[in-house]
Design a protein that fits this description.
Blueprint (H helix, E strand, L loop, with lengths): L11 E5 L2 E5 L6 E2 L11 H13 L1
Antiparallel strand pairs: 1-2, 2-3
Bound molecules: zinc ion.
Amino acid sequence: MDECPRCRGSIEELSLGDVSTVTCPHCGFADIPAEHQPHGEEPESWRDAFNRFYEE
Ligand SMILES: [Zn+2]
């Protein structure tokens, strides 16, 4: 996957530890695979980490 399904712009692949995902810098689309979220971990903590990574 290298094309944004929302705006068809080029997307970027990000890796956070063992998890990789793709984001679109053009429209803000983010494909976060739920299957990679470990059980018991709060979704908010993942979002915080992701947002912090994306903003830098
Ligand atoms: Zn996009």
